[in-house]
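Please, structure for the following, as tokens.
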Amino acid sequence: MPLLIVICGIALLLLLILVFKLNTFVAFIIVALSVALTVGMTIEEAVASIQKGIGSTMGIIVPVLGFGAMLGKLVSESGAAQRITTRFTGNLNSKYIQTSLMLAGFIVGIALFYEVGFFIMIPLVFTIAASTGLPLIYVGLPMIASLSVTHGYLPPHPAPTALTAMFNADLGLTLLYGLTIAIPAILVSGPLLARFLSRVNAKPLAEFVNYKILTEEEMPGFWTSFFSALLPVILITLSTVAGFIFPEENIIRRILGFVGNPVVAMLLSVLSAIYFLGVARGKKMTDIMKSLSHSISTVAMIMLMIAGAGSLKQILVDGGVSNYIGGLMSHSMLSPLILGWLIATILRICIGSATVSGLTAAGIVLPLVTGTNVSPELMVLAVGSGSLMCSHVNDTGFWLFKEYFSLSVKETLKTWTIMETSIGLSGLIGVMILSLIVK
């Protein structure tokens, strides 16, 4: 019976989002209440469980996502993202174009949300393809793959950060493992795959909007841009590595542990960017603060979506459904990591949104994390990889790629969908290899 309740709950979620086009947060709350009442919880218990789920999920999410949005805004508006991209793509030798765009996409993708990174980098992709005469897919796919991988695998992006909180995983280790599997995933799904798909006749969007391209004088220096974008990753990674190298009482480990705490690392990164990308370049503090205030509006709905997923997760736990599902899954011959990946993949195919798919899957596979010895950090990456699989016509990313590259639906399925599926499969393979090493 509990399994049937979960299936009906997911079916209702799909119905509300896909058919009735209801707001995702509202849909999650309706489904959470429906599941709670169906499993015998009172309305008071259900509301208390929803409040608990939202609070526990959003505890680390709000500061990390909020600071992440601010940092992304500073990196974008200051021209730091453009500086990084133009530096890596400055040498138009065709041998290095893919590698340059791949690296630029990876660095920019860590700091910026997928859509923002896409819009910033796509004019340069079109320019480089035109000036070199190389096929547009050959030039653009490595950059798109990098943006997609960072979006699905790496904190401080919304889904990986939320999954880390839900599974009570270590964010530093998640980032470290994520970087380890991200590199081969990008290489396979970007430069390598582009060689086989370059015959697809993609063209720049005819009505392409000419986004503002800053002049050399308007952009900050390369190293200022580089470290501003990567500072959170550097601080969190140093803290994690210090935990392996130094004893617990060591002063260096304590200091790095403090500055590498995700919230502190993001705060320090924002403060650093405010100065180096703003104040030091003559911008008024009032203008910078207005820009940062606006940046929060871009993640408000994402935060509500994550909060809704947290409420459903808590209902499944408090209602006893998770324990029941965990008992059933524990008898499966499949690895918990494969099960998590598979459930996220199925939801991705049905829902379309990678974020919603990953968050919904998290509530279902949570007992596999709490009831087995599986690494919660690897489960974050397994679910994140599955949430990128098989993107098709119900995913906004599918249509964004189709329109900007002037492709037919069939051609988009042969390029974008194959690339996303390659990323999802590469991620799973990387996770399973790591699982043999990480205990």
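The chain has one domain: 2-437. The chain has a mean pLDDT of 84.
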